[in-house]
Amino acid sequence: MKFKIVCLLCITLLAWSSEKKMLSPSFDCKKVKKESVAASICADENLSALDNKITKIYKSFHPLTPELKEAQNKWINKRNQCKTKKCIEESYTKRIKTLQDSLLIQKSFPQSMLDIIKSLHKRKQTKADNESPKCMRFFNDLFLFQNIHVVKPILDHVDYNNTKLKKALGSCWDMRMDYVYSPRYMVKNFSIWYSDIDGDGKKNLIFGQHEDGQTHMYVLDKKLCAMSISQPDFNASNIHDRKVIYESTWSGDGSINNWRNTNALIEYKGKSYGIIVRVSRTPITNPITRRHNELFIFKQALVNTTYDNCQYREKSRKE
User: Tens digit of pLDDT for each residue in 125-148?
Assistant: First the structure.
């Protein structure tokens, strides 16, 4: 009786193991050519697992930009040149690391930036206004989500009388940064960032005013603020007395009322930049006055410096 039970158990285990299916990759193995890299992946569970992993990461990108698709196709072509299992494994490992890093960067982007990137690529009729090699490299990295770090504010949308904000601003707080032009026009929400503006290893104080869907950023120097307020005739209500602040602005074009401007602070290749997302609120049918969705990267480090601009937008109907 014991012998029969043991034998029955053996037969059951053998039947179960014979029905166990081998792990398959993300693609259809029935369509691959014999002796190809794809066939090698189909025949190896470890390689199949790596293929499933990379596919899952790749499909996690939202949006999945044309630049990411092109880079993935280039990687597949390069992978298919491998002659050994080790080469295939190393190819997957490196690409998985690249995609994981890019996905983390994408997840750090404000949703407004992701929405405009998706919109620009969906329309396909886009252009970079400044097609210098530097700008083109930047936008390629931006759409690949690589080499870019979105700087998070240490204080975000707080009141001007917030004790932490007052401490961070120091003497610049007395410059009345809550005034837009005069006490009659006051801003209620503010943010603070610290970031290396010029790649010299020093963190600069960056102050943001949030007003009507826009963010005006300022690179502040507490010493200059202290010098200004120490003047006997200093008056914070006078915009000219606060000139030191407005000459160091990173603000966008606030004169266009039917745009929504969302600024972000990013670090790119060791330097900090402001970035504006401009979305047209209402479509304008006139081909001459029609405004566009666009991304606009700009830089003005301190007083009397020059802009370093790159712009990527929808083409107008006459372009």
Answer: 555 555 677 778 888 999 999 998
* Cβ within 8 Å of residue 272, ≥6 positions away: 151, 195, 196, 197, 204, 206, 265, 266, 299
Omega prior to 25 cis, within 30 of 0: no
Indicate the SS3 state at residue 44: coil
Beta bridge partners of 264: 275
pTM attached to this predicted model: 0.75
Residue 171, C-beta contacts closer than 8 angstroms, at least 6 positions apart: 222, 225, 226, 229
Torsion angle, alpha carbons of 73, 149, 251, 204, to 10: -150
Beta bridge partners of 155: 192
Tens of pLDDT, residue by residue over 103-114, are 999 999 888 788
* Element containing residue 3 per DSSP (H, E): helix 2-19
Q: Which residues contact 73 (CB under 8 A, 6 or more apart)?
A: none
Which residues are CB-contacts of 47 (< 8 A; sequence separation ≥ 6)?
25, 40, 41, 85, 88, 89, 92
Residue-wise pLDDT for 295-317, tens only, equals 555 443 322 233 356 676 665 54
> Which among 244, 257, 268, 156 is positioned nearest to 212, based on CA atoms?
257
Grouping H, G, I as helix, E, B as strand and the rest as coil, residue 17 is helix
